[in-house]
Amino acid sequence: MKRSEINRAIKEMQQMIDKVGFSLPPFCSFTPTEWQKKNNEYDEIRDNLLGWDVTDYGRGEFEKVGFSLITLRNGNLKNKKYTKTYAEKLLYIKDSQYAPMHFHWNKMEDIINRGGGNVLIRVYNSTKEGDLDKINPVKTHCDGRELLVEAGTQIKLTPGESITVYPYMYHDFEVEAGTGGVLLGEVSMCNDDEHDNRFYEKMGRFPEIEEDEAPYRLLCTEYPRA
C-alpha cells in the first residue's frame, strides 16, 4: 500500500469515530515525531501492537479487500509481563470493502456493530482439514440468542447488535449494500494477528508500504524502540 493511502484510511476512520461519538485513548493521536521521544513507560503499546492498523491483505486493492482498525487494549501470551487475558479493537469497513474468510485457532471474540450501516457476517464451521464445512449448520450466539443457521448464512448486525465468533468458526464480513460504512467493535481473548489467523485463501496480514509521503500516524508495527 502507498503511505498516502494508509494516511487517508486513518483519517477516514477518525471521521467515522467522531461521527459515532467514540473517544480514543491519547496514544492514538501521537505523531511520528512524538513517538521518537516516548520512553519505556509506553512499552505495553509497542509490545502488544496497540494502535493504528490498516490492511489490504497483500492484495493491493484496499478499496475492495481490506479495512482499518485500532487495537485499544491487548494482553500478550508470549510475554508474562503482560497479564491481561482480553483485547479490544475498533474496526472500520467501508461500503465497498470486504474482509476475507478466516478463523482463529485460539481467540474467541464478540463482533459488535458500534454504529453506521449494517454489517453482514457469513459463517461456516471448519472441517478437520481446515476447509469450509458446507454441510453442517453453525451454532450462533447473537446478543443472548442461540440459533442454528445453515452453513454460509450471512448474519446481519444492525447498530448495537453483536455476534460471538468461536475458534475454528470461519467468518468474513462486508457492509450491506446502501447502508454506509460501519464502525465495529471487537471484544475478545488476547489477540495475536501474527500467529492466530487462518485465512481460507492464502494472504498476508500486514501491508508492504510504499513511502510516497510522510506518515500521518505510525502503524502498530512501526513504533521506534525506547
UniProtKB/TrEMBL annotation:
Catalytic activity: D-lyxose = D-xylulose
Cofactor(s) needed: Mn(2+)
GO molecular function ontology, one term from the record: D-lyxose ketol-isomerase activity
EC numbers, comma separated: 5.3.1.15
Entry-linked CDD domains: cupin_EcSI
Keywords (A to Z) from UniProt: Carbohydrate metabolism, Isomerase, Manganese, Metal-binding
Any single Pfam family the record assigns to this protein: Lyx_isomer
Alphabetical list of Gene3D superfamilies matching this protein: Jelly Rolls
Keyword tRNA-binding: no
Parts forming coiled coils: none
EC main group: isomerase
Taxonomy, superkingdom: Bacteria
Family: Belongs to the D-lyxose ketol-isomerase family.
Name the UniProt record assigns to this protein: D-lyxose ketol-isomerase
Organism: Commensalibacter papalotli
